From TrEMBL:
It comes from Aspergillus nanangensis. This is Methyltransferase-domain-containing protein. Pfam families: Methyltransf_16. The lineage of its organism: Eukaryota, Fungi, Dikarya, Ascomycota, Pezizomycotina. GO terms for molecular function: S-adenosylmethionine-dependent methyltransferase activity. GO terms for cellular component: cytoplasm.
Length: 355
């Protein structure tokens, strides 16, 4: 798993200091070097490729580690393919750091392998059966705020929710066969994964930012889940507080009409509680999902950066007659993660909200 884990982490563009490089001794093996070249650096076989500066940083560390491990220069060496790639990376002009931070790239996320002992519909004994479930998004990992939205990267709460949905029976049961809507979906990571692997009857990812919706539509096609081409995924603009459907793919629905298209079973949200000013709007929107769109539960994953902010959200739910229950799920510590890699240094909790 060491090599596989490293390749998955590279695909998710983890910060190089957080990458789990294979042990130096195994790096000396020409076949390991060749596998690394073909899985990470070969222009003709690897897509999507991380930005050039990221590739350069990782290959630099890799070469340094191989050099350190070389005991007998007559016997051990760095393969030509890796050295040629290194020369080619160095020949690229240095990009402007600001432009680079704003540039969106495709990122390939791999779902974690279910943990030993976990009750999961995806447990498997053989590696062959454990076919990697990957999903592509378009984002900039380093971007925190751009064009007034925080949605141009996938946040830890989404990766945590993805881990829950992809590795537990209870998580996948939330999606399979259901009509699902996601609020503030950002890159669409959670909904794209659900659409591709968890068999929803329908899944609609929404956000208020049109550029994010465009990215989600593009990624839906690349992940082959686009509803216009027979898949289950739709994306649309939805600004909380407005009726859904004002400008999204979801038709508007008021209390008088019974529009099946606007009825959902489950709603999802990740990292939506970061600003106390947004709480009244968010809670009234969740309430509308129950009353107007008939959802039976709202599942929200929250990074608990500020206890007061989160408590204000729970209080607002209670005042609106919404019941909140914490789902007892913890992501494994980073050193035990096998996919959807994320930090657990700030606690993340998933809540089920019902009415
Ligand atoms: C911190 S990001 C989380 C994105 C994604 N769920 C994730 O966890 O990676 C918050 C998202 O909520 C969206 N958002 C914030 N306020 C909103 C509003 N009033 N209506 C709709 N979307 C909103 C933002 O555009 C952004 O994509």
């Amino acid at each position: 798993m060491t090599l596989e884990r490293f390749c998955r982490q590279y695909g998710e563009q983890l910060d190089p200091p957080n990458l789990s490089f294979p042990p130096s001794t195994s790096l000396l093996s020409p076949s390991i070097q060749s596998t690394l070249y073909n899985r990470l650096f070969n222009d003709t076989t690897v897509w999507p490729q991380p930005p050039i500066p990221y590739q350069t940083r990782v290959l630099k560390t890799l070469i340094a580690r191989i050099e350190e491990a070389i005991a007998d220069p007559e016997e051990d060496e760095i393969t030509d393919a890796l050295l040629e790639k290194w020369t080619s990376l160095l020949s690229h002009p240095k990009p402007d750091p600001l432009k680079q931070a704003q540039q969106l790239t495709y990122i390939s996320y791999t779902a974690p392998t279910p943990f030993p002992g976990a009750s999961s519909p995806f447990s498997s004994s053989s590696q062959e059966e454990d076919k990697a479930r990957t999903i592509l998004t378009s984002e900039s990992r380093g971007l925190i705020l751009a064009s007034g939205t925080t949605g141009f990267r996938t946040w830890e709460a989404a990766l945590h929710l993805g881990t829950y949905l992809s590795t537990t029976a209870a998580g996948s049961a939330l999606i399979t066969g259901n009509r699902v809507i996601e609020l503030g979906a950002g890159t669409g990571f959670v909904s794209l994964f659900c659409a591709k692997y968890l068999g929803p009857r329908r899944i609609v990812a929404t956000d208020r930012e049109p550029a994010l919706v465009d990215c989600m539509v593009d990624c839906a096609a690349r992940n082959e889940v686009d509803a216009t081409k027979g898949g289950m995924f739709e994306a649309g603009i939805w600004e909380w507080g407005m009726p859904v459907g004002v400008s999204s793919s979801v038709p508007a629905m008021d209390n008088q009409t019974n529009n099946e298209e606007a009825v959902f079973d489950v709603a999802l949200g990740a990292d939506l509680i970061y600003d106390t000013d947004l709480i009244p709007l968010l809670v009234s929107t969740i309430d509308a999902l129950f009353t107007t769109h008939k959802i039976k539960q709202f599942v929200i994953s929250a990074t608990l950066r500020n206890e007061d902010t989160f408590q204000a959200f729970l209080n607002a739910c209670e005042q609106n007659g919404l019941k909140t229950d914490r789902i007892p799920f913890e992501s494994p510590a980073p050193e035990h993660q096998t996919g959807f890699f994320h930090s657990t240094s700030i606690p993340i909790s998933i809540y089920q909200i019902t009415k």
